[in-house]
Amino acid sequence: MKKQSTTARWIALLAMGLGVFMGLLDVTVVNVALPTMVKGFNTTFTNLQWVLNAYTLVYAVTLMIMSKLGDMYGRKKIFLGSLILFVIASAINGMAPSLLILDLGRGVQAIGGAGMMSLSMALVASNFDGKERGLALGILGSIIGVSSASGPLIGGYLVEHFGWPAIFYVNVPFGIIAVILTVFYVRETPSYGKNHKIDLAGMILSAIGLFAIIYGLIVKEGHPHWAWTDPQVLGLLAGGIIVMIAFVFVEARVVDPMIDLKMFKRPHFLGTIIVAFALGSGIYAYNAFLTALMQNYIGYSAVQTGVRQLTISAWSLVLGPVAGILSSRYSKKWMIVGSLLIGGVGFFLMAHAISPTVTFAELWPGMILMGITNGMVNPLLNTAGMEGALPQEMGMVSGLLNVFRQFGTTVGVVGLGLIQDAQYEAHLNAKMPMLEAPAKAINGIKEALINAGPFSGHTIAFSARMDHLPFAQALQKIVIHAYDNGMAAVSMTSAIIVIVGAIGAALLMRNHMASQDLELKQK
């Protein structure tokens, strides 16, 4: 195959970067548009949850399937088809006349997003080689980090100036540019499985299993006071686990499996997926709680919050290429370990900064360290994940890293939310009986605050109705302290998660030379 010119390769990276940016941005950008959508569709936040959940569920479920199809039929073909599907669905979403059409469009859009995301790393790895590959994967890691953290800023600006449809319409012109660049500049990879049979059973079982587990977590998130043994939660989670066990059983016996289970016997690969999970559950999940803190409690607007969160996301632009260059000289393993530990320190600083009077001035040191972790680990993880992988495995490696990153985010949002709820409720139970007011009134207000949860409790406590009560100030102080206790616990938990990720990387990942030896043995 004729080697591309240097310019063509970097234009190809631009095309793939645009696809990844749009696909990941649409995981978070809708959050800031929900209040406007409530008015536009004349509905409730509860009914709008599927605008978020449809994308999250379908995105996570189809990542591995799209990876396998890319490996079998050509990664460029599937990436290009996914990109076109994403652009068409984005246009439909912007014009959606009803909530049902928007929910369905979000699901279709997620299939396109999953295809772009799952194949981008493998395409970069096959379009570049040598030191250029590390730099290119580093830049792609930067794009992943920036897109995941910039949703509030971009979404807030678009909604504020152009209305909620703009968050979907903006994908159309950039998507068309990406399609044109992909057609002319991205080099196709061989169809490694063109003589293989499609593992239909594996695809169906993996989709059903992941759907059940992630939907079970979403149900639990929406009903924090339901027990894990509640039939609607336990049934989904247990059913999903059983289906995934059946998936492993099938994969071990079919001739052409969707996933080669031998990949999970490699300590280095296990280390990388542990890091991906820690990144999702520790840092990306935490962003949702940080946004709520800055908007609901400190009082910043969506755009003001997004601007301040550049303290986190801007580091990805700066450090991604740097990490890519350094990865060819130094051990990626120890760079990842060190970067995760820096994030742990950042979360400890965040926990210490939380107070009733907290402002951005107290938060930015911890946010900077979080940003450094995100900016370094993402690109390094992409490069490290590809080490030791055979060419025909790169698509699936890319897909699995993204699955564990997305699954980690979902688990993290639920887990951190339950920890915050528990601390919030415990403080309300301990302090509200001390208010000088009738017990019946106190219990009614407490029940309303607990049902609203930490994110919305502030709105109730500071409402015009509560302001007229003689104990309003004392109540507001209790609610703020309850929220602070929960947020500090969330910060400490995130610190523990990234430190555990660092330990997993230290114990399981191999250094550069060890990974190269593994690749040579496999060949």
TrEMBL record:
GO terms for cellular component: plasma membrane. Residues 12-513 form the Major facilitator superfamily (MFS) profile domain. InterPro entries: EmrB-like, MFS, MFS_dom, MFS_trans_sf. The keyword Nucleus does not apply. PROSITE patterns: MFS. Pfam families: MFS_1. One of its GO terms (molecular function) is transmembrane transporter activity. It is found in: Cell membrane. The chain crosses the membrane at residues 12-36, 48-66, 78-102, 108-128, 135-154, 166-186, 198-218, 233-255, 267-286, 306-327, 334-354, 487-508. It comes from the Bacteria. It is a multi-pass membrane protein. Keywords: Cell membrane, Membrane, Transmembrane, Transmembrane helix, Transport. Its main location: membrane. Belongs to the major facilitator superfamily. EmrB family. This is DHA2 family efflux MFS transporter permease subunit. It comes from Lentilactobacillus parabuchneri. The lineage of its organism: Bacteria, Bacillati, Bacillota, Bacilli, Lactobacillales.
